[in-house]
Amino acid sequence: MALLCSCILMAAMGLVALAVPHPRSSALHHLTKQLLGQYRKEVRPVHNWTEATTVYLDLSVHAVLDVDVQNQKLKTSVWYHEVWNDEFLSWNSSMFDEIREISLPLSAIWAPDIIINEFMDIERSPDLPYVYVNSSGAIRNSKPIQVVSACSLQTYAFPFDIQNCSLTFNSILHTVEDIDLSFLRNREDIRYHKKAFLNDSEWQLLSVTSAYSILQSGAGDFAQIQFNVVIRRRPLAYVVSLLIPSIFLMLVDLGSFYLPPNCRARIVFKTSVLVGYTVFRVNMSDEVPRTAGSTSLIGVFFTICMALLVLSLSKSILLIKFLHDERRGGREQPLSCLRRDSEADGSLTCPSTRATCAEATESPVCQEHQVQAGTLKEVWLQLRSINNHLQARDKVYQQEVKWLALLYRFDQLLFQSYLVVLGLYTLTLCSLWALWNGL
């Protein structure tokens, strides 16, 4: 009885083992073994070597991570898709349980050597070791890539700048006779595809234009596809933090032109404005992009505004200095003239008076005449000194009037220059903003 039970138990276990499929007996295992058993990944997968392998490319921009204007680099996150046909990896799906698509290791099959010409850094992308292969031999390879590419970044219209950076794909070794390139999607669909783009960054994606061309070189003709990524900056943050405070400071400096040119408080006022503008420029220097080849329009405006501030302050300082020198010279001149007049009159009148008095020192009439002559002479000297002093003051006043008239004209010229610069800059910014909104 025990022997019978043992036999029944062993038979049941055998039936269970037969009911469970072995991995090596599955259709997927047989298909993979058949495809990769005699596969050579070193050989381009075509039966006729004269036929070119066409690789279909597609690109979707996901985000703009960084725009390095100083080093002329653009860092973007893109989804890259490539599809090609492998004639050695096709099968009849009816013979393998209707399996129409499988995943194979990318390292086990042939893959095209497509690179990006503008690469400046190591490609950063997650390691996706598998690709999809369908029954007709079409291989689909999709992966996200962080691309650090070289780009000619123009900052003249900052913060209303629009950048156009290209990503050029081509084979590094195979000519167009071996590997040809084509578009996976319609070019218009690629151009206006923005669903995958993150719009919460500083940059906004306008379009992704594409073009196919043949690169001719000494090594042969190479097929290449160029994607032009067109982006524009959102300027609102820079308008609030840079443009509006700068315009306010210039308007405050315009108010100083209503102070008299010879007022010392005007120098203090302009110095305060200049110091404030300098501190503003230093604090905001990191916000304005700088390149060795070009200067942004806002940088030119800041430089012109500071030059006008320095020129206006220098003019006020020179005016106060000239007026001070003229007044000091006018005060010293009457005293010197008075001393010269006294000495000259003394030298002319004293000899005759002494001679007359020497002849008649004891005459009462002579003594009375001498007293009257001395009194008149003193009055005449005082009147003459007063006249000279008034004439000197009049000359100083006339010089002040001339300087003030000249400085008033210079003030008007500077004031008009301020208005012209502010007007032109405002008109330019409005035009750039209108063009920015029109795109």
From TrEMBL:
Q: Which Gene3D superfamilies match?
A: Neurotransmitter-gated ion-channel ligand-binding domain (2.70.170.10), Neurotransmitter-gated ion-channel transmembrane domain (1.20.58.390)
User: Membrane topology type, per the record?
Assistant: Multi-pass membrane protein
Q: Which reaction does it catalyse?
A: Na(+)(in) = Na(+)(out); Ca(2+)(in) = Ca(2+)(out); K(+)(in) = K(+)(out)
Give start and end of each Neurotransmitter-gated ion-channel transmembrane domain. 242-324
Keyword list, A-Z? Cell membrane, Disulfide bond, Glycoprotein, Ion channel, Ion transport, Ligand-gated ion channel, Membrane, Postsynaptic cell membrane, Receptor, Signal, Synapse, Transmembrane, Transmembrane helix, Transport
Signal sequence, start to end: 1-19
The record, for InterPro entries, names: 5HT3_rcpt (IPR008132), 5HT3_rcpt_B (IPR008134), LGIC_TM_5-HT3 (IPR049944), Neur_chan_lig-bd (IPR006202), Neur_chan_lig-bd_sf (IPR036734), Neur_channel (IPR006201), Neuro-gated_channel_TM_sf (IPR036719), Neuro_actylchol_rec (IPR038050)
Alphabetical GO CC annotations of the entry are:
cell surface; postsynaptic membrane; serotonin-activated cation-selective channel complex
Q: Which GO terms describe its molecular function?
A: serotonin-gated monoatomic cation channel activity
Which parts of the chain span the membrane according to its record?
236-255, 267-284, 296-318, 413-436
Q: Where found in the cell?
A: Postsynaptic cell membrane
User: Which function does this protein serve?
Assistant: Forms serotonin (5-hydroxytryptamine/5-HT3)-activated cation-selective channel complexes, which when activated cause fast, depolarizing responses in neurons.
Assembly information from the UniProt record: Forms homopentameric as well as heteropentameric serotonin-activated cation-selective channel complexes with HTR3A. The homomeric complex is not functional. Heteropentameric complexes display properties which resemble that of neuronal serotonin-activated channels in vivo.
This chain's protein is named: 5-hydroxytryptamine receptor 3B
Q: Which organism is it from?
A: Jaculus jaculus (Lesser Egyptian jerboa)
